[in-house]
Design goal:
alpha+beta; 16% strand; globular
Length: 171
């Protein structure tokens, strides 16, 4: 991915997120967007996770906001648990590890009731994977299916007003 394309995407996301925050009721669940993080916060999270976050994910937290924006219930805060229902991205990844879930997925967007859009961070185009809870929890607590989106395409769909929880249209 060309860094200039990320620049344009980040600029569009910042504009939408902060304009939308100014226009909407402050009672938005789980809360309004949080200010962007500092580089040392990213480094702390990466130490806890044991890997470096992909450049686009780093930029979302450093330049757009530390959670509570985007599709569904939004991006989780990176480090800080807000309440019993809303953990941080680091909390979510660590819990999944303890449960034996795949370690190459970042649960970036929650759509409620355990339905997530996660990103395979170890692949260059950052494919988005839909995760849905299973009834029996075996061999995994989630069923997974490819969304057809890269993370960039997923965010562009949201910016265009499409619901990225649905597969991309064939057009």
């Amino acid at each position: 991915m060309d860094i200039v394309q990320y620049d344009e995407l980040i600029a569009r996301l910042k504009k939408r997120v902060w304009e939308q925050a100014a226009e909407t009721d402050a009672r938005r669940y789980p809360g309004p967007p949080r200010p962007p993080l500092m580089p040392e916060n990213i480094e702390q999270a990466e130490q806890q996770l044991g890997f470096r976050l992909p450049p686009l994910v780093r930029r979302l937290y450093l330049e757009v906001a530390d959670g509570f924006w985007g599709p569904g219930l939004g991006l989780p805060p990176l480090l800080e648990r807000i309440n019993v229902d809303n953990g941080s991205l680091v909390d979510d990844v660590m819990t999944r590890r303890e449960l034996g879930e795949p370690t190459n997925l970042l649960p970036l967007f929650c759509f409620g009731c355990g339905h997530d859009a996660s990103v395979k961070y170890d692949e260059p185009d950052l494919p988005v994977i839909y995760e849905n809870p299973t009834d029996d929890g075996w061999p995994s607590i989630y069923s997974r299916s490819p969304s057809g989106y890269s993370l960039q395409e997923f965010l562009l769909a949201w910016l265009a007003g499409r619901d990225p929880a649905l597969p991309p249209s064939p057009d």
